Amino acid sequence: MEHGAIVSTTSASGVDAPNVPVGKLILVSSIAAGVQFGWALQLSLLTPYVQTLGVPHVWSSFIWLCGPLSGLLVQPTVGYFSDRCTSKFGRRRPFIVSGAVLVAVAVFLIGFAADMGRIFGDSATEKMKPRAVALFVVGFWMLDVANNTLQGPCRAFLADLCGSNHSKISASNALFSFFMAVGNVLGYAAGSYNKLYKILPFTKTEACDIYCANLKMCFICSILFLIILTTIAVTIVKETPITQEDVDNGSESMPFFGQLCSSLKTLPKPMWILFAVTALNWIGWFPFTLYDTDWMGREIYGGNPDGNAAQAKLYDQGVSAGSLGLMVYAVTLGFMSLAIEPMAKCLGHVKRVWGLGNLVLAICLALMVVVTKIADKARGAAVQPPESNIKASAIAIFAVLGIPQATKSHQQSDITTIYSPNTISMSNIFEGLSLGLLNVSICIPQMFVAVVVGPLDAAFGGGNLPGFVFGAIVAAASAICAFTILPSSARKNA
């Protein structure tokens, strides 16, 4: 569930940045690997984990409301205040360090929720663990807030370092995307290895089974990785503090949300169309984001976290296989990200690449339904893992999904360079406002899906397929809109 920041071509103060070595850009960009490691763990492990604490499948999607809410409110707000921070340590570094500390606290709450729930009175025999769930939800929401607190200022820091140097802006965006791919691969790889807990055997306790212990170890690795990268970056890469005079000269007189509303009112038609296509794309994606590994555990492996020991074991195996599929997906994403520009040149315009990406997403979601039916028929009444060809087909779908994910990421990073209208001068507003404009079209669709998809799945039997069918239909609509109504040139149609 990543939230992209729009990077302007000047520093937020409107002053060209000094000639910063590429090595420093690499250090700051590397923080993205630590952030994305945590995102990958969230996407692959936490929906299955919360069900082991007793939260029904139908309610698990509501917990994910924290992602779009924090993306809509926290990241642009943090970006706005970091633009105006006059700390002697710089504008961005205090927020980056604060975000890393919050991540550590959140990870502790999530990983040790079952143990602390038992200490506070959860029953050892009851399936529902209300105290553990409460601690998990607090930690889960805090983790999303922390990641957004960290990621926005990190990208804005890169924009400050690059100034108006277009080649370095391009290089920093590429570096950030590369390290995000590295973090994805590491996170999904950690989630797919179900014996990681043996490194620290004490993580397995009476209240925390093997799956829970593995999750603990994954998050311990994540926080150590993030802290090391963050410490190196903020120690070596210095910032020049700004004064209140710089803030007053570079900012608008109205508050952040006033600027956001004012900018939305003046947006021309091409930008609204672009936001609409982006919104449809995210509605198509979010059912997969919510239930990717859960689908592997339930529908492909035939497991059930609420069932008997054999069914629960199968479910855990399926979740691990799903994490492996997501790792392959991340590798595809990394390679495809390099191919987007050549594809856009061959097809004539980047909007056609977006349209093809949305079409591939719709097809993949539809194929997930087909593979589910084949797996169910082959399994029959037996409680056993799927045949190798069925597992390979499921992982192949994960791999292909890296293609539309690459086009989606490219769409976000290109939103200002291709469709930014003359009425919005990115040299006159700060990174926080840019984040707000983009996140409106990303986070509201996510909130809609988080509220709708759980009850939708429950209404049709409690599995994941209704959500995937819904996502496929909306993704197809997004593809049609991208091909037909998205203008080739925003300025010609403004």
Automatic annotation (TrEMBL):
The lineage of its organism: Eukaryota, Viridiplantae, Streptophyta, Embryophyta, Tracheophyta. Belongs to the major facilitator superfamily. Phosphate:H(+) symporter (TC 2.A.1.9) family. InterPro entries: MFS_trans_sf (IPR036259), Suc_symporter_pln (IPR005989). GO terms for molecular function: sucrose:proton symporter activity. GO terms for cellular component: plasma membrane; vacuole. Keywords: Membrane, Sugar transport, Symport, Transmembrane, Transmembrane helix, Transport. The chain crosses the membrane at residues 25-50, 62-82, 94-112, 171-193, 213-237, 272-291, 321-340, 352-370, 428-453, 465-486. PANTHER family: SUCROSE TRANSPORT PROTEIN SUC1-RELATED, SUGAR TRANSPORTER. NCBIfam families: GPH_sucrose. It is found in: Membrane. CDD domains: MFS_SLC45_SUC. This is Sucrose transporter. Pathway: Glycan biosynthesis; sucrose metabolism. It is a multi-pass membrane protein. Pfam families: MFS_2.
